[in-house]
Design a protein that fits this description.
The protein is built from 15 helices and eight strands. The chain is an alpha+beta fold. It folds into two domains: 230 residues, Orthogonal Bundle (Endonuclease III, domain 1); 123 residues, Nucleoside Triphosphate Pyrophosphohydrolase, CATH 3.90.79.10. Strands 1, 2, 3, 4, 5, 6, 7 and 8 form an eight-stranded mixed β-sheet that branches. Helix 2 crosses helix 12 and helix 10 crosses helix 12. The longest helix has 17 residues. It is elongated and about 75 Å long.
Length: 368
C-alpha cells in the first residue's frame, strides 16, 4: 500500500520533501564523495561523454583501465571518428554490452560531421545522438558545460526509492515518470556538479544494492526504507522470469599456430566482434555427423575433440557453449567468405573478441 507521500511523488507534486535534500547531499559529497576519478576535474565533453558511456552498467573499478587505454588510442573525438570500427571494438573487448562501442563510434562521427567536433551543450540535443539516453545526456551536460538537468540511472533510482519509500517497480512507466518528476524537483539552484556527483557517489559507495552502509548516509534520519526496515526490499526488483537457455558448439579451428575467427554481423549479440565459428548441433553424435562437412571449406581435418563447456549469461538468455577443438593437416587456399580470418594465437589477447571467447582461447593458448 502506498504512503501519502509516495502518492504525491508519483503524481508529480513539486518539492515533495520537508528537508533540504540537495543541500545535505552537496555537503556530504564535498566531504565524503569521490574527487580523484580520472574523468573528474575536467570539462572536456569528449572525456566526460566517454566515461559516462563506459560507466553504463559497469563498475568504476572495471572502467578505469579501459578508459585510460581508450584515451591513449583515441585521444579526442576526431581520432575516434576516423578510426576503423574493428579497432574500436578491439579496445572495447572485455567491457561488455558491445552495442555501446558501436554507438560510441557512430556518435563520434556525428559530432565531427554535424557539430564540427564539439558536443552540444543542450541535454535535449545530446539525447538525439547514438547511445545517449536522457540520464546520460543530463550527466554530460552538467559535467561538461554546467547545464541544469536531472539524472536517473540505476543508482539514483535506488537512492530515491529508499529515501522516499517508492514501493512499486521502477520499470513501470507511471512509476518511472514519477521518479523523473521527483528527480527534477530536487535539483538545486547552484552547485549542480557536486549535487549530481553526490547522487552517483551515494548510490555507488553507500546506498549500494546489498549491505548498504546506512549509518554513513546523510539521509539516515529521513529515509523511509531505513525507518520502516525495508532497505532490503527497495527498490522493488523486476518480477522474476526464468531466463531461456540456448546451446551452441564453437569450434576452435587450429593450423600452424593460428586460429580461425569469424566476424559477427553488426546486429545481434557480439555484433561487430570476431568470434569462433559455430555449430547449432551440440550432441556428440550430431556433431560428429556434420563437423567434417562444416570444416571442409577451411581445410583437411585431422582430428577433433569436444571440450568441457561453459555458460555465459546475457541480459535476456543464458548461452551454453561447448567448444570443439579441430586440428587441420592443411588449409584451403581461399577462405569461404570475407568474414573469416586466420588469427595468430600469440596475438589473441589484442583481438576484438567477446570476453568469454578470449578467456577460452587464452586458457588453451599454452597447449596449442
Amino acid at each position: 500500500m502506498k504512503s501519502a507521500q509516495e502518492k504525491q511523488i508519483l503524481k508529480g507534486r513539486k518539492q515533495p520533501v520537508d528537508f533540504d535534500f540537495s543541500g545535505m547531499l552537496i555537503a556530504w559529497q564535498k566531504q565524503y564523495g569521490r574527487h580523484v576519478l580520472p574523468w573528474q576535474q575536467t570539462r572536456d565533453a569528449y572525456r566526460v561523454w566517454l566515461s559516462e558511456i563506459m560507466l553504463q552498467q559497469t563498475q568504476v573499478t572495471t572502467v578505469i583501465p579501459y578508459y585510460a587505454r581508450f584515451l591513449m588510442r583515441f585521444p579526442d573525438v576526431a581520432a575516434l571518428a576516423s578510426a576503423e570500427l574493428e579497432d574500436v571494438m578491439a579496445q572495447w573487448s572485455g567491457l561488455g554490452y558491445y552495442s555501446r562501442a558501436r554507438n560510441l563510434h557512430r556518435c563520434a562521427q556525428m559530432v565531427v560531421e554535424e557539430y564540427n567536433g564539439h558536443f552540444p551543450c543542450d541535454p535535449v540535443v545530446l539525447e538525439t545522438l547514438p547511445g545517449i539516453g536522457r540520464s546520460t545526456a543530463a550527466a554530460i551536460s552538467v559535467f561538461s558545460s554546467g547545464g541544469r538537468a536531472a539524472i536517473l540511472d540505476g543508482n539514483v533510482i535506488r537512492v530515491l526509492s529508499r529515501v522516499f519509500g517508492i514501493v512499486e517497480y521502477a520499470g513501470n512507466k507511471k512509476v518511472k515518470d514519477g521518479l523523473w518528476q521527483l528527480a527534477e524537483s530536487l535539483l538545486p539552484d547552484r552547485e549542480l556538479e557536486a549535487y549530481t556527483q553526490g547522487l552517483m557517489d551515494l548510490g555507488a559507495t553507500v546506498c549500494v544494492r546489498n549491505n548498504p552502509s546506512c549509518r554513513f548516509c546523510p539521509f539516515a534520519s529521513h529515509c523511509v526504507a531505513f525507518r520502516d526496515d525495508k532497505v532490503k526490499d527497495l527498490p522493488v526488483r523486476k518480477p522474476f522470469k526464468a531466463l531461456p537457455e540456448k546451446q551452441v558448439c564453437m569450434f576452435i579451428l587450429i593450423h600452424e599456430g593460428q586460429v580461425m575467427l569469424e566476424k559477427r554481423p553488426a546486429p545481434g549479440i557480439w555484433g561487430g566482434l570476431f568470434s569462433l565459428p559455430e555449430l547449432a548441433e551440440t550432441e556428440p553424435d550430431a556433431v560428429k555427423m556434420v563437423l567434417e562437412s562444416r570444416v571442409q571449406p577451411f581445410g583437411e581435418m585431422v582430428s577433433y575433440q569436444m571440450l568441457g563447456g561453459f555458460v555465459h549469461t546475457f541480459t535476456h538468455f543464458r548461452l551454453q557453449v561447448t567448444p570443439v577443438l579441430v586440428e587441420l593437416a592443411s588449409r584451403a587456399e581461399k577462405l569461404p567468405g570475407v568474414q573469416y580470418v586466420w588469427q595468430e594465437m600469440k596475438d589473441v589477447e589484442e583481438a576484438a573478441l567477446p570476453s568469454p571467447v578470449k578467456k577460452l582461447l587464452l586458457k588453451m593458448k599454452p597447449f596449442l
